[in-house]
Write a structure and sequence with these properties.
Length: 387
């Protein structure tokens, strides 16, 4: 199987490098990835995938499907292609997306014999308002057995965890008045907002380790001589502690309610972006991938400690998933920089991509051929989520 996979991969290499480079040259922000998503759709169609465009009503989302029409598991690869303002593909989603689409196409060349079905899912806006959240909510993964993707990085890293993230916006409304001649007639919305920050700061001491609450004041009044009747704050509430987010979120909401109560302001609570759930790596699946990754020459694998949040987390809570990292450079590189983006153009990056596609595809064929492996992956998932 190894030689077969590498044979197909070699025949596709130029096309995949062209795809990654084209997306690098045409960086597009989240939900505006028109050229990038089209480039993925075109190559998938060329290689025999049926592609549904405008998936779930998102213009730059797509669902590519290839069905061997023989019994077997359904395997999903998640494709990202959004860029960052000012620094283009500083997160390397050009090579990330190509790795996922490339894996789908290589596997497609093998499953007519083996059985099973492939989904290649184009998921826009990972950096801002990730559409994987909508996919997970809409049931995209209901008939999927495993979901995989891999992110470029400075090191090879085993799929790990990420932080639960709830974005919350508080709008406080009070009453304007002259701040000096008639302050007793006003209700100060900004004070309610500042009290919320202070309450949250008092709360911090009593929260579970590595929990993060960070916020800004978006609107804090119009003029110093007017009692502010409107104040708006946005917070990200994050925790790596599995199962803690609801309790934590409620405590933060209470801080805002207390600020409103103390000042007499009213309070509206909104989710201003989509919540990203914690990444829960399926260890049985991750072990299978890691073994194949090492087998093709990936070295120096580290455990991933992610201080941020990813929308693959939401997928991992509805379907056994992995989100490992692959090295694109031996230089010391930092994501979200121009230099990171430039490294995705070099042969070393494509060597990392090649190893990763191999490992993703080999893990897929292992799962198709070895029913016990898939059973152990599903058993672990069901145990974790009490299903
Ligand atoms: Zn990023
Ligand atoms: Zn990224």
């Amino acid at each position: 199987m190894k030689d077969k996979i590498l044979g197909v991969l070699d025949s596709l290499e130029d096309e995949l490098i062209d795809l990654s480079n084209y997306i690098y040259e045409n960086p597009e922000l989240g939900l505006e990835e028109f050229k990038s998503s089209k480039a993925h759709i075109d190559i998938l169609r060329k290689h025999g995938f049926e592609v549904e465009e405008n998936y779930l009503g998102f213009e730059t989302a797509f669902k590519g499907v290839y069905d061997s029409k023989k019994p077997g598991p359904t395997i999903a690869f998640l494709v990202e292609y959004d860029a960052l303002p000012g620094i283009g593909h500083g997160c390397g989603h050009n090579i990330l997306g190509t790795t996922s689409t490339g894996s789908g196409i290589v596997l497609k060349n093998l499953i007519d014999d083996l059985g099973g079905k492939i989904y290649v899912l184009g998921s826009p806006a990972e950096e801002t308002n990730g559409v994987k959240v909508d996919m997970a909510r809409a049931g995209t993964f209901d008939d999927v057995d495993i979901a995989m993707m891999a992110h470029p990085d400075g090191h090879n890293q085993i799929s790990g965890s990420s932080l639960d993230l709830y974005p919350v916006q508080f709008t406080f409304r009070g009453k304007t008045s002259h701040a000096s001649s008639a302050p007793d007639k006003g209700i100060n919305a900004l004070d309610a907002c500042i009290a919320t920050f202070n309450n949250i700061n008092a709360l911090r001491e009593h929260l579970k380790e590595s929990t993060r609450i960070h916020g800004i004041i978006v609107n804090g009044g119009e003029a110093a001589n007017i009692v502010p009747d409107l104040a708006v704050a946005q917070f990200y509430v994050r925790t790596p502690v599995f199962g803690y987010i609801e309790e934590l979120y409620e405590k933060v909401i209470n801080c805002a309610k207390a600020g409103a109560l103390a000042t007499g302001a009213s309070l509206e609570i909104e989710e201003f972006e989509k919540p990203y759930q914690a990444m829960v790596t399926n260890k049985a699946l991750s072990d299978a991938f890691t073994q194949n990754f090492v087998d093709i020459g990936a070295t120096d694998l580290k455990d991933k400690v992610l201080g941020g949040s990813i929308d693959m987390g939401n997928v991992s809570q509805v379907c056994p998933s992995i989100h490992p990292y692959f090295s694109i450079s031996s230089a010391d590189i930092t994501p979200h920089t121009i230099s990171f983006a430039e490294k995705t153009l070099l042969p070393e990056a494509f060597e990392g991509m090649r190893k990763t596609i191999y490992a993703l595809v080999k893990t897929s064929t292992d799962i198709i051929e070895n029913k016990e492996l898939l059973a152990s992956i599903k058993h672990e998932f069901n145990e974790t989520f009490n299903k």
